[in-house]
Amino acid sequence: MAAESSAEDYPHEIDEQLTGFDSSVTSVKTMLEKLMSMPRNDLLQKLDPLDQAKLDLMSAYTLNSLFWMYLVTQGVNPREHGIKQELERIRTYMNRVKEITDKKKAARLDKNAAARFVRSALYDPDDKDSRKKNTRIHGYRYLTEHTLSDTCCI
C-alpha cells in the first residue's frame, strides 16, 4: 500500500516510520492468525487455570488496544471513548494475576531446614555430660547433641 504511493504523497521523513508501522502491523496480523487458527478449547486444555487467565487477559487487552488504534485512525479521541475504561479494567485484572504469580514465586519458609540450622548452631561437641539436651526455642523442641548411634545404624 505504501509502496504504491509516490514520494510526493507524503513527506520523505516519515517513510521510515511508515515502513516500520507496516512491518509491525504485519507481525501483529501473523500472531493473531496463529492464535485464531488453533481451536480455543484445545489451547485452554493445555494450560493451567492461571495461564488460562493470562491468555484471556492478553487476548482482551490486545483486541482492545487494536480497537484503540482503529479509533485513532478514524479521528475519534479514544480517551473520551469507553475503550479507555475497558483497558483500565483489564489492567486491573492483569495486576491481580501478577500479584498471584508473584506470591507463588515468593520464598517460603522451610521449617524443617530452619530446625536443622538451629539444631546445628546449638550443637556443642564438648558437652559429653548429658546424652541428649533438649532446648526449646519459640515453642519448638530441638535436640542439640546427637551421637552417630542415635541417628542411624552404621
UniProtKB/TrEMBL annotation:
Keyword line: Cytoplasm, DNA-binding, Nucleus, RNA-binding, rRNA processing
One GO BP annotation of this record: maturation of 5.8S rRNA
Location in the cell: Cytoplasm; Nucleus, Nucleolus
Chief location of this protein within or outside the cell: cytoplasm
A GO molecular-function annotation: DNA binding
Functional description taken from the UniProt entry: Plays a role in the recruitment of the exosome to pre-rRNA to mediate the 3'-5' end processing of the 5.8S rRNA.
Name of the protein described by the UniProt record: Nuclear nucleic acid-binding protein C1D
Organism: Amphilophus citrinellus (Midas cichlid)
